[in-house]
Amino acid sequence: MSKLQKDHIASALAKLGQQLSEPQGDVQHIIQTEQHYNAWFTPDSVTSAITAWGEALNETDIDTWLSKYLQLSGREPKKVGLILAGNIPLVGLHDVLSVLASGHHALIKASTQDARLIKQVLKLLVDIEPAFADQFSFIERLTDFDAVIATGSNNSSRYFDYYFGKVPNIIRKNRNSVAVLTGNESSEELSRLGHDIFDFYGLGCRNVSKLLVPEGYNFNHFFESIEDQKAIIHHHKYNNNYDYNKSIYLVNGDKHLDNGFLLVKEDERMASPLAVVYFEYYKDEQAITELLLRDSDNIQCIVTNVPLQVPNQVVTFGQSQHPALWDYADGIDTMDFLADL
């Protein structure tokens, strides 16, 4: 599929992973300066995203990921348009690497929020393996494409369907993640859940925006266990969202819980505002499954220790922002899509 052989692709990606695991030079510089272009991309957030990619791009996982697809060869490369999101650092990198690894040409319409990071990582990759330089282009307007992978909101997806519906496509909409609690979680588990909620300020589709809890659940233990995340309130944009949503609830008389940096409100909806987590009670294990199946099309992943039979990806506490290479957004196998072009 690619001019590069599988072992060359795997080797280059593994070397990229090593460099991202220990950011230096230009990467370290962009970690420190990115907040000047996007206030959400603080040094901690950018470091978390970069080192998570360093963790994911290890030799074993790369071989496992690529071995399923790269037995196919000799296909004509296609031009694949990529419309990338920019809600969290490097959120579109998986799509880019998938296109490169599958031998196609990526036409990258990067988000203005994240363009500098994506370009820096691809510069590292080209320095490692110059052959990749001919496999991608950054564009302002998407034209002359054979297929499209577009990530956006529920609103933008309608436009994507209209413009790209005549070519092979993956069009992603809004999704959020949910945690299922039993009331028996340890303080350590709930502390790790704090990362699932607060990493990247809750802006990602893999951030937990809703809790399913047993009837009569006492939130005191949850609040005590996530206290180590309280410094998030000092970020001015997060604090603005917290203050705004708190004011709305107080003015409207909406019942809610408040620990000083997170608002918790009972609500059937999946997508909560920033600085808010919704919750919903369940009666028993069957009710959990029914609730999750009801919202399965809006769920990116589920954080829990409860064994579940659901179509969505299930991860343990603290792991929502550490997907493996084969944990595809919306459960759609991007590499399989690219292999079939």
Structural features, described:
It is a single chain. This protein has 341 residues and is of the alpha/beta class. The protein folds into two domains: 6-173, Aldehyde Dehydrogenase, Chain A, domain 1 (3-Layer(aba) Sandwich); 176-315, 3-Layer(aba) Sandwich (Aldehyde Dehydrogenase, Chain A, domain 2), CATH 3.40.309. The chain contains twelve helices and twelve strands. The chain has helices at 6-21, 25-33, 43-56, 59-67, 93-101, 115-128, 154-164, 187-198, 220-225, 236-252, 285-294, 334-339, and strands spanning 79-83, 105-109, 136-138, 147-151, 169-172, 176-180, 208-214, 257-258, 263-266, 276-282, 299-303, 313-315. The radius of gyration is 21 Å and the shape is globular. The relative contact order is 0.13. The model has no long low-confidence stretch (mean pLDDT 95). One of its GO terms (molecular function) is oxidoreductase activity. This is Acyl-CoA reductase.
Furnish the topology, listing elements before pairings.
Blueprint lengths: L5 H16 L3 H9 L9 H14 L2 H9 L11 E5 L9 H9 L3 E5 L5 H14 L7 E3 L8 E5 L2 H11 L4 E4 L3 E5 L6 H12 L9 E7 L5 H6 L10 H17 L4 E2 L4 E4 L9 E7 L2 H10 L4 E5 L9 E3 L18 H6 L2
Parallel strand pairs: 1-2, 1-4, 2-3, 4-5, 6-7, 6-11, 7-10, 9-10, 11-12
Antiparallel strand pairs: 8-9
Helix pairs in contact: 1-3, 1-4, 1-6
GO molecular function: oxidoreductase activity
Protein name: Acyl-CoA reductase
Characterize this entry briefly.
The chain has 341 residues and is an alpha/beta fold.
